[in-house]
Design goal:
By secondary structure, this protein is of the alpha/beta class. The protein is built from 23 helices and 30 strands. It folds into four domains: about 220 residues, Rossmann fold (3-Layer(aba) Sandwich), CATH 3.40.50; about 160 residues, Rossmann fold (3-Layer(aba) Sandwich); about 80 residues, ATP-grasp fold, A domain (Dna Ligase, domain 1, 2-Layer Sandwich); about 110 residues, D-amino Acid Aminotransferase, Chain A, domain 1. Helix content is about 40%, strand content about 20%. The strands form six sheets. Strands 9-8-11-10-12-13-14 form a seven-stranded mixed β-sheet, with helices on both faces. Strands 20, 25, 26, 27, 28, 29 and 30 form a seven-stranded antiparallel β-sheet that branches. The radius of gyration is 31 Å and the shape is flat. The protein starts with a helix and ends with a strand.
Length: about 700
């Protein structure tokens, strides 16, 4: 971590646990941001001293007010600045003079309003740098710490939340108020609650590292509208996961990109920002959430229950329909219905009515009372084949809802297996739900909603156990040669590399390129084809032609010298008719690999995450099926293999229906080499290898066609 990051970590402690707070720019007017922040800090009963600062007031809320910050006679840990944005710079300058190292700038009117606001933001950043001040904001709701050791409510939120073990960080202040209301209705408490606004200084990265060591926090939730440093976010989330075993759940807005410009490569067109975001989060162990409800459904599973050991679950219900719906969703989420051992089945035969279904899902029948639920739950919890339990209840006239809730809480307290519940309905089951929430049993309105949180907690537990590999750094590459080719093309104004030049770059990074040659006459075409060996593929070579098939510029299965010479003439003629203005460099001839399977590799440079590598089924299938996977570079061996396995059509590569396995190791090697090339040559904006022809296991793979688009 650099100097500023170290500083943030140190100064964040006094933001969350200040012994003295100056509210700079507060007033007596209720219903205003400055007035409400003062009231909130006062009413939360901060464990510290409060100093109102207002040039025109002598007393605010029975406390002595100071004209300027520098007039406060005692040391101050934290300044909460609520002055208009036009004078925030002077307020922050005085904080520096006073020796205050931590601040929360609530005020709006900065970068979010345009150029003038951006100037103000740069001004306060410079002042903070000068005085070594760490600040949250500007343009934020503020900061809440429910820990009794602090009880800080430096925000203008309507509510001070209950104490809990979930931290919530948000770029949006408006969302924060809605989340507080939502959480209160579900009896969910928080450890820390932060609206960080424009993140001009302290960012979500700094907050993640702080919360990693926060004993009061077990789960971290984050709402983001923009990602400015994707690799750092991934690294921070990974560190939090590996070092503290705390999950990071992110809700990222902007899933659609309406009106996105067309990309020149397959990878560019398929690797949208949202697909890349999904892949990057998964790679870092981050759990992406679709909305607020989704986020808290998953959060309470982490906060309240043990992590599951496997995908094997049991479902207990008093109604068949909800059990079937939950089973369907469980399978869709990659879970499995556990098969009970004989001892468990025997217990169920003795304790449940003959009309009950004692296989999974267990139907204890509509008239079930607490005793049947107890028998089913204890039986399942003692079965080694089961690693998680979903309990569903529908309210019948004879259902003792509160007793069943108490029974669930009792069993959950004694079990090390996660137990989730769904009491379906509202008014009739409200008292039972309250009991479940009191005992920290995750409750879901719809039973199907239990499945995604279980899958998310299982994924996280598996990620914790994985030891992160160090990506292989290949030393047989020729970085200097690549840079020379790239620089020469950029200096001459070329951003689209010919296939010949593109393959030259690929080859210098150790990717296996098919034997080939560029020809400029019939006779030369015949000679080169003879030297390569038949059959060969012949293609037009022109910087002006991206899609060679579209202009009849590709011919396959050329099998002798005479055919090669005639094909040369035919290709040139076809292209001159279709694109007479195109500058033709010649005809490219390459060995045709038969009996191979075509896959695609690609690179795209994402503005947030940097170079991203794509893998998928090649040829025409990539555009038709869009069956691809992504990883952010650098990529280790395990990640490369997982990229291959996670596409839907991976069975075609792994020996489906009696076919022999393809050479997966050679594909993984190609992915890792491409990842290194993308990192070491930042001028590559987009790259396609389509197809990469893969042979059977042990026989390798070959680059058949490639294109590279450069950027300055």
């Amino acid at each position: 971590m650099g100097k500023r990051t170290d500083l943030h970590k140190k100064n964040l402690q006094t933001i969350f646990y200040p012994e003295s707070v100056a509210i700079v720019g507060t007033n007596k007017v209720k219903g205003t941001v400055p007035g409400d922040i003062f009231t909130n800090i006062l009413q939360a009963e901060l464990n510290g001293v409060i100093y109102p600062v207002n040039p025109r007031e002598k007393w605010i809320g029975s406390l002595k007010a100071y004209k300027y910050i520098v007039d406060i006679p005692d040391p101050v840990d934290l300044a909460v600045i609520v002055f208009p944005s036009t004078v925030c710079d002077r307020a922050l300058e005085q904080c520096g003079e006073k020796g205050i190292k931590s601040a929360i700038i609530i005020s709006a009117g900065f970068r979010e309003i345009g150029e003038k606001g951006l100037e103000r933001e740069e001004q306060i950043k410079a002042i903070a740098e000068k005085w070594d001040i760490s600040f949250i904001g500007p343009n934020c709701l503020g900061v809440i710490n429910t820990d009794p050791a602090s009880r800080l409510n430096a925000s203008f939120a309507r509510k001070f939340p209950a104490e809990g073990n979930i931290a919530f960080l948000s770029q949006s202040g408006a969302l924060c108020t809605a989340v507080l209301d939502y959480a209160q209705a579900r009896n969910i408490g928080f450890s820390k609650f932060v609206s960080f606004g424009n993140k001009a200084d302290i960012s979500e990265i700094d907050l993640l590292y702080y919360l990693m060591d926060d004993e009061k926090t077990k789960v971290i939730l984050l709402y983001l509208e923009e990602i400015t440093d994707g690799p750092s976010l991934m690294r921070a989330a990974r560190d939090v996961m590996e070092k503290s075993h705390k999950p990071v759940l992110i809700m990222k807005s902007g899933r659609t990109s309406a009106g996105a410009s067309a990309a020149a490569s397959h990878t560019g067109s398929l690797a949208g920002s949202d697909e890349i975001c999904d892949a990057a989060f998964r790679q870092a162990g981050i759990i992406r959430c679709d909305n607020v409800e989704d986020m808290f459904n998953i959060a309470i599973a982490f906060a309240y229950q043990p992590l599951p050991k496997s995908e094997k679950i049991a479902i207990i219900t008093n109604a068949g329909g909800p059990g079937v719906l939950t089973t369907d969703e469980a399978i869709r989420q990659g879970l499995k219905l556990a098969e009970f051992n004989e001892d468990t089945t025997g217990k169920f035969r003795r304790s449940l009515p003959t009309t009950a279904n004692i296989s999974n899902p267990i139907d204890v029948i509509g008239d079930a009372r607490a005793d049947r639920y107890h028998a089913a739950m204890t039986g399942v919890c003692q079965d080694d084949n089961v690693d998680g339990l979903f309990v569903i209840l529908t309210p019948q006239s004879m259902t003792d809802i509160e007793k069943i809730a108490e029974e669930i809480a009792k069993v959950a307290n004694e079990s090390r297996k996660p137990i989730y519940t769904s009491f379906m309905g509202e008014a009739d089951v409200a008292a039972g739900i309250k009991i479940l929430q009191k005992h920290h049993i995750p409750h879901y309105t719809l039973p199907e909603s239990m499945c995604k949180p279980y899958a998310a907690t299982l994924f996280f537990n598996q990620m914790i156990k994985q030891k992160a590999e160090r990506p292989t750094v290949f030393d047989d590459v020729e970085k200097g040669k690549v840079q020379k080719v790239v620089n020469e093309n950029l200096e001459s104004g070329k951003t689209y590399l010919s296939e010949f030049k593109a393959k030259e770059i690929i080859e210098t990074y150790g990717l296996p390129v098919i034997k080939s040659g560029l020809t400029t006459s019939e006779k030369e075409a015949g000679s080169v084809a003879e030297s390569i060996g038949y059959p060969v593929v012949m293609k037009i070579m022109s910087d002006d032609i991206v899609h060679k098939f579209d202009v009849d510029g590709v011919v396959l299965n050329v099998r002798n010298r005479e055919e090669a010479e005639k094909t040369y003439t035919r290709i040139i003629s076809n292209v001159q008719k279709s694109m007479p203005e195109a500058k033709i460099d010649g005809v490219y001839i390459a060995k045709q690999i038969e009996n191979g399977t075509e896959v695609i590799l690609g690179v795209k440079r994402d503005p947030a995450f940097g170079p991203v590598v794509m893998f998928g089924l090649g040829g025409i299938f990539v555009e038709v099926f869009k069956d691809v996977s992504f990883r952010v570079a650098p990529i280790d061996k395990e990640s490369a293999v997982n990229m291959i396995k996670e596409i839907k059509s991976s069975k075609m590569l792994l020996g489906a229906r009696g076919r022999k396995n393809l050479d997966i190791d050679s594909i993984a090697d190609a992915i890792m080499r491409l990842s290194q090339l993308a990192l070491e040559c930042p001028q590559i904006a987009e790259l396609d290898i389509n197809p990469l022809i893969v042979l059977e296991d042990g026989q390798g793979c070959f680059v058949a066609d490639t294109r590279i688009i450069l950027t300055n």
